[in-house]
């Protein structure tokens, strides 16, 4: 006969192992997982070459339902700002619908003006740029062309709190935005050789009202904080985007999110 205390010890060990397994599963379920999803659509109208098309590759969050849903909704809303033609964004509810609307706009225009050539194109690629306990940074690289001298391309930075899925605005990144802005302007002037006693636009830049501004898109990277100015934001299309990489050793004291 097995002594009672040995049975109790045996049962206790199994209870401990089972508890640890449950804890491990719970821990894993709190970690965001991203899977890349791809969508493509090409016009059904006859065309010989460079047929109008649109391609989207985007990271889709899952494994933590409420957090993932918040992130995915924000990413989709930003793509609706990028992929559109006309005065208002499309009313599509998903990516397939968004692509269908874009190609539909082309086909309507082609039918209305059959003699004109419209070589539409759109290519959007998203990726997880940076991920830590404090911040999740998704980058959207986009190019769209719907006629004219050239298309429009750029980068969008989407920042999230990985524990809640809520967006983090640029204003929330800094302890004192004005102080950081002054610091960034000195670094920007040094990189682009703009004299301290001259206008920020003295060398041909196009900052609004002749005053330095932080960019609309700020990225967290493994090497530091990246200030990224898309075309037209600080310079002409011909001059291209401008960027400034600031090592974390120089900016940590300014950051509220790090």
From TrEMBL:
Pfam families, per database record: DUF3298, PdaC
Residue span, DUF3298 domain: 172-248
Domain Deacetylase PdaC: 48-152
Name of the protein: Deacetylase PdaC domain-containing protein
Organism, as annotated: Flavobacterium omnivorum
Lineage: Bacteria, Pseudomonadati, Bacteroidota, Flavobacteriia, Flavobacteriales
